[in-house]
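Progress against Task 2.4 (sequence-to-structure conversion) is shown through the following example record, which the project officer requested during the mid-term review.
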Amino acid sequence: MSALLSGNAWVNPFLGALESAQVALGSAAHALGMAGDSHGQPAWPWTKRLAVEVLLIDAGVARQLALALAATSGALLLAIAGLFWRRLRIALLAAAVLAAWFAPWPDTSLWLADAVPTSFQTTSFSVEAVARGAARYARDCAACHGDTGRGDGPRAATLVRWPPTIVGPLLGHRLDGELFWRVQHGMHARDGTQSMPGFKARLTDADAWAILDYLKVLAAGGGVQDGDGWPVPVALPALDVRCGDAPAEPLARWRAGQRVRAVAIDSRAPPLEDPRWQTLLLFRDGALPSPHETARWAANGYASCVAVSPGAWNVFAGIAGVSTQRFAGSQLIADRDGWLRAEAKPGDPAWADATLLCAAGGGRAEGVDRSRTDPLTSLLLRIDAQPVRYVKGGYVH
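Structure tokens generated for the chain above:
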């Protein structure tokens, strides 16, 4: 993947621009009354969308599409110039026609895909939703898809099509809204045979989105257990944070663009606060320290900000690929953009580079002399030098 990325570094920005253009187009259509609502969010009004997942696989098609768009844009600019520049009107209009005529458009089947009304819908990734999704998944999905999401549930062999594993980049190559549509409305094989039933009558929209959030945790934890790291970038899940004896506030407001170190605490021994990040303490449900105790920690220079949303311990343990019973002492680091990037197991304070689970590949931070920095500082510099450039359906990191 890293070699492919380095050879076609322009593809991710190109795919990102296409995705942004599609989202903007859908928003404009909704604002103008051309599109209604579907499942409580603006609907995509067309039956097709740009197939960024195909453009990812075939850089040649992506290059051809980019050239075609450039040629067509150039033709449009030449035509506009011809309308205002009388002396060169004929030449400019002729050049516009030629540019448009010879634009190397690839076959539409290579860059357009079927769309559904919810294709570009999304939802927030939160601790509350993951906890809810875990319960719904166990009730309605695990029998076929398996407890770990690897498609090995007890009913899998009886299905028309064996369920795919979600432990890998599959989720990252599918739009959230289209996965939601399949959960609610089902799937069919090419011959029309139903390969997965729809759960619209059994799951609310919030339930379906919550299951998708839980799948992201299963995929992340499974990737770590397989030794491949997180298959797609994982964001810090939304939750509430209480610092000292102050009222709780949303993590995004508390973090305010700073790095975050999440530490699983199984005793009343918080680490000292560190200016390189903001420390988020994770406790098991029912074991949260009192505001008086965390205020005392803060007064003595110890980390004192606690995740108070129920289920936070379980969600972070799942992301780290560690059982909840063995999660104590684990640590995770999120970068300034809120992406989880690295993990340290209990008893691994050195933060070796091997713990970097979300990286662009290759790997050295430019200008960093590792012989003169401690392993943790070196890791932080590498993370800063390799920010996540994630496009849904595009390159993984």
